[in-house]
């Protein structure tokens, strides 16, 4: 399903379903500490009911499944959900996945201990979504917003790859990322109160193949370019990596979390 938002990439449409196979193969890259920090805050553990918004291929539920929560994942893309179901089934994991927009959630009130949104929170209509989440969460329930991005000003390989994306997608708004706290819309605070914020740097390992796949599966390439443009970009990117990158390397990233507690409703 195509998505367009004038605040993202100058309004250029993108479709995560087009990169589902590459997304499944190359975007499961969060380091162990990413999940450990979530569990350390008693989130997504020990029988808690957790709803994962924008679940994509189910990266968060699949990797946190051993911590003991019961997961439901939703995503607007049917192709992403198909990949998620297949991968969870192969792992013997009992995760419920549904293809639907987050704004159309229709679960019973007070169903979940935690709602998570990893790498997707800015895509939603917050004025529609946040009241729904407040009613879906149990008393004391929490909303966990997660994010991780490479840092082009601190990593030369990431910077070079990013410049090539911009040659093909000059209005791509994913460029020039710096480490900063997760930003929340003003309407968030009507329904939630901030409990914890954290940002930290991580070095993520890649090969030339896996970094090419990770970049190809980003919004500025495979999700928005034509197949012909994507093929041309990939040919240039592979050549670039042969010139500037060893076979094995790390890319400097930062990760961030925002934990918000549901306000008690009158």
SSE series: HHEHEHEEHEHHEHHE
Q: What is the terminal separation in angstroms? A: 38 Å
Give the overall shape, derived from the CA principal axes.
Answer: globular
For the biggest β-sheet, the strand order reads 3-2-1-4-5-7-6
Using the CA coordinates, give the radius of gyration. Answer: 18 Å
Helix content: 25-40%
Largest sheet: 7 strands, mixed
Structural class: alpha/beta
Low-confidence stretches: none
Residues in β-strands, percent: 25-35%
Tell me how many strands there are.
7
Q: What's the overall average pLDDT, rounded? A: 96
Number of helices: 9
Give me some keywords for this one.
alpha/beta, seven-stranded mixed sheet, 7 strands
Describe the structure concisely for a colleague:
It is built from 9 helices and 7 strands, in the order ααβαβαββαβααβααβ. By secondary structure, it is an alpha/beta fold.
Give an overview in words:
With 266 residues, the chain is of the alpha/beta class. The protein is built from nine helices and seven strands. The relative contact order is 0.17.
Could you outline the blueprint of secondary structure elements for this entry?
Layout: H1 20-26, H2 32-40, E1 49-53, H3 59-64, E2 70-75, H4 78-90, E3 96-99, E4 112-118, H5 126-136, E5 137-150, H6 156-168, H7 188-191, E6 192-207, H8 208-216, H9 227-244, E7 248-262
Parallel strand pairs: 1-2, 1-4, 2-3, 4-5
Antiparallel strand pairs: 5-7, 6-7
